[in-house]
Amino acid sequence: MFFDRPDSGELAVLVHLNVSYGQESEDPREFEELVLSAGGDPVAFVTGKSTSPNARFFIGSGKLQELQQLVAELKAELVIFNHTLSPSQERNLEKELQCRVLDRTGLILDIFAQRARTFEGKLQVELAQLRHMATRLVRGWTHLERQKGGIGLRGPGETQLETDRRLLRNRISMIESRLKKVRSQREQGRRSRQRASIPTVSLVGYTNAGKSTLFNRVTGADVYAQNQLFATLDPTMRRLDLQDVGAVIFADTVGFISHLPHKLVEAFRATLEEAANSTLLLHIVDAAAEERLHNIEQVDIVLGEIGAEELPQLRVYNKIDLLEMAPRIDRDDRGKPLAVWLSAQTGEGSELLLEAISELLGTEMVIGTLMLTSDQARLRARLYQQQAVSAESYRDDGGCSLTVRIPKSDLLRVLSSESMAFDALVWAEEGESQH
Question: 220-247: per-residue pLDDT in tens?
Fold first, then answer.
């Protein structure tokens, strides 16, 4: 839209260098999966080592000649680098290679643009793309940097480059204001859930760890789940009733990846805040992945960026069917659940996960048959509001008997609003049982 560049295509030459100047190297296998997820068709994979990147081309002159030959021989339409390139490096490479050049950030942005389905998701992706584009705007308009004089050639007082920058700023400002409204709506929803004492459990983890498959398995939802990177972009929520806890909101979130572009973290802040304000985080881990420890570390880094590193966390090791393991719960010295091993694909261990969540979220429950008199109708109504009543029957004296199941903290709050004491309640002969 903004600059003259070669048409993009799907035949791609991939470039991955092992750098040794202090930057952590990216995983070449993950890079290839990213390209395939974007719909690319890798026809060659160029690897090499570099002590420091070349200022003009990122790669050295020898690698540049090798790339030129490959692009010409294979008729490649796209060269993708598993690194972050500067705008000038992209421009210089395209000039030499005569084809479209993309870096890791641009590749991830393209995948996000393909996957976004909701209005909010599309806005967030567009914001990230525009911020990325703003740094590369200079490349396409070198022929219009100076205004010309003469009849019919006098412009509006700014160059084409300045016009595009202004249009870009206006669009970014408009999207940010829309996302601000989305954020306030999400905040309002969170406050109402907090007032109703409904805990939120967010599924976080490295991309393609199986979050959406597990979410569907536990909640019975039908969220899009595929064996590809970033299959989920738009957060989905479902309500589930757990024993000894009551209503719980489960939230499926976007997957993380190593060196997730900062522009994306900023753009998806409204979505990621859902995880940052959760009662409990389920950190889903691909137990069969060789780079399991590295993936866990990268997720913890992103959780730190969004301020969620201090939240209670339950580690969930998924895909044990690939390891031929039995499902189990790992506990600490006091018996508190630390990790659950399961398979979201087969469903093995999913009941153990719900058990562990119930233990971590569960509070002291009051269960029994409450005997109310005819003048305690307000208390009856409040218990119904809390969805604590499972059965009701009326007595000959005009009163009623309510079979209730409610967290004791919620019951005490209800009694306080009615100026009643817990000891003043009358229970049926079987009495109350507390857990």
Answer: 866 555 555 555 555 677 888 887 677 7
Q: What share of the chain is helix, strand, coil (3-state, %, to 5)?
A: 40, 25, 35
- Binding site residue list for GTP: 205-212, 230-234, 252-255, 318-321, 343-345
Q: Which contacts (CB < 8 Å, 24+ apart) does range 69-75 have?
A: 70/13, 70/44, 70/46, 71/13, 71/97, 71/98, 71/99, 74/11, 74/13, 74/43, 74/44, 75/11
Q: Which residues of the chain have pLDDT under 70?
A: 1-9, 20-27, 117, 136-161, 190-197, 221-235, 244, 258-271, 273-274, 363-365, 409, 430-435
Residue 399 is encoded by which pair of tokens? 């009163």
Which neighbouring-strand residues pair with 407? 365
Known binding residues: 205-212, 230-234, 252-255, 318-321, 343-345
Q: Please report which residue ranges of 362-398 form alpha helices under DSSP H.
A: 377-385
- In whole angstroms, give the CA distance from residue 33 to residue 364: 47
User: Crossing angle, helix 211-219 and helix 350-361, to 10 degrees?
Assistant: 80
- Distance between CA atoms of 324 and 343, rounded to whole angstroms? 10
The dihedral sign for the CA sequence 243, 246, 252, 255: negative
